[in-house]
Model the fold of this input.
Amino acid sequence: MRLVDATPVPCGQSRQTVKRSEFAGHAAYGYCAAHSRHFWGFKLYLLAAPDGMPIAFELAPANQPEREVVAGVLEAVDLEGHTVIGDKGLSGTEIEELVASLGCTFLRLDRRDEKPRFGDLGGVRQWIEAIFDQLKDQLSLERHGAHTLPGLRARVAQRLLALGASVWHNWEIGEPGRSLIAYDH
Done:
């Protein structure tokens, strides 16, 4: 099973920052429906295993169409035989046909305006939200402190590498999961 979703990576708060930032021309304004807020920056698209192990990621301007970015992430990885679980924003025949052509199954939350197809995936969707929550809280993804695009890419990659290392280490010591509690003293 693979989980795919996106989360905001804000890069500035004020209009003056947007104008003079090194991210100008790269970052964009976007909207995060989960947090009901507009932001300026990027979105981190993450494909992860249920235990939190990052499989693939893409950092894209906040206004780039979600389906296009997710399609690129999915095409970059061998997903033969896997089940990919996404959110309502990934509805549409194009993404379902793409996933089918990659040899995997695609499941997503049902939208209110359509006939139920996939059932209640809310509990499974919480896994990717918990992974993002850990990236934001314990690994301070939103407080990255980067001032340049290469710096932002490096800082996002560092956090994903730290998450992957903790998942791997916990498996090695017989404590499966992504908990970092033992390491934050």
Remarks:
- The first helix runs from residue 15 to 20.
- Residues 2-173 form a domain with the Nucleotidyltransferase; domain 5 fold (CATH 3.30.420.10).
- The CA atoms of residues 80 and 103 lie 5 Å apart.
